[in-house]
Amino acid sequence: MPFFCFSQNNGLFLCSVMGNLYLIPTPVGNMEDMTFRAIRLLKEADLILAEDTRTSGILMKHYDIHKPLVAHHKFNEHGTSAGIVERLKAGQTICLVTDAGTPGISDPGFYLVREAIAAGIEVQTLPGATAFVPALVSSGIPCDKFCFEGFLPQKKGRQTRLEQLATEQRTMIFYESPYRLLKTLQQFAEYYGEERQVSVCREISKIHEESVRGTLAEVIAHFTATPPKGEIVIILAGCEEVKAKQKSKNQKIDKQ
After folding, report:
1. Residues 6 or more apart from 141 whose CB is under 8 A from it?
2. Which helix (H) or strand (E) holds 214?
3. Cα separation of 68 and 54, whole Å?
4. How many Å is the Cα radius of gyration of the chain?
5. pLDDT tens digits for range 78-120
6. How many other β-carbons are positioned within 10 Å of the β-carbon of residue 68?
7. CA dihedral defined by 81, 85, 91, 92, rounded to 10 degrees?
8. DSSP readout, 57-116?
9. Which of 40, 45, 126 lies closest to 92, judged by CA?
10. Are strands 20-23 and 122-125 parallel, antiparallel or unpaired?
11. Which of 193, 233, 232, 239 is closest to 216 using CA atoms?
12. C-alpha to C-alpha distance for 14 and 137, rounded to whole angstroms
């Protein structure tokens, strides 16, 4: 917001203070998974950017938040970010939310954050809801070291990525659609072996939350008999060190 400054010779001139961009995590299921600070900032904001204004509108109504909602998603973020940065430069406080979870984690956010930082704008991300952390911690698979893979490529580059992860020793985290879950698990079994440990967590923090744990063969059998529904996070155990070294050695031999 603009304010007046005084120079050394007592001249009066207009100064401006840049606004802040806040990335606000929203519930991945249960509406109660909001922080007090997140609600306060949304109520104080000049503008709220939403991945889907209809989805976010339900959340705003639940918490009695009455602020302008503007669509900001992967299809328009390159075109709208410049205007948003100008608003921030003019002193507005703007919050970014996505349909569920923390903005930027397999959701819009990165491009706007990069542009805001380049313009010298303060960017703050609140701690809060995200799907993969509870899925990882409750999986029973080591979580001291892990890598987040998000959604695998659906077509081009998928096989290459699956091959590259064959020697990954850290626990791996994937997001997946219920319609592609079985295909993905079957590919994991093909590339990494049916005995690899896996945990499939779905509907996190919702009424029908479920974690299915076991070998890939066991979990595939479960979801073959019971078609999956809802949002899904896959936690896949990493390759054991000895096996990883042997696979790496075999790959080098194959290339020779």
Report:
1. 171, 197, 198, 199, 235, 236, 237
2. strand 210-215
3. 12
4. 23
5. 999 999 999 999 999 999 999 999 999 999 999 999 999 999 9
6. 10
7. 10
8. HHHHHHTT----EEE--TTTHHHHHHHHHHHHHTT--EEEE-SSB-TTSSSS-HHHHHHH
9. 45
10. parallel
11. 193
12. 52
- Among 90, 85, 1, smallest CA distance to 49 is for 85
Phi then psi for residue 82, to 5 deg, are: -60, -45
Mean pLDDT across the chain: 91
- Closest of 50, 28, 38, 36 to residue 205, by C-alpha: 28
3-state helix, strand, coil in the chain (%, to 5): 35, 25, 40
Are 176 and 232 contacting, i.e. CB atoms less than 8 angstroms apart? Answer: yes
pLDDT for residue 245 is more than 80 = no
At residue 2, the pLDDT reads 45
Q: Which two tokens stand for residue 208?
A: 């029908």
pLDDT score, position 4: 43
Task: Say which residue the tokens 């809802």 belong to.
Answer: 230
Enter the tokens of residue 65: 């938040």
Which tokens in the block code for residue 212? 């299915």
Q: How would you label 206-244 residue by residue, b for 16+ Cβ within 10 Å and e otherwise?
A: eeebebebebbeebbeebeeeebeebbbbbbbbbeeeee
**C-alpha distances in angstroms, 165 versus 5, 70, 98, 171, 199?**
57, 39, 29, 11, 17
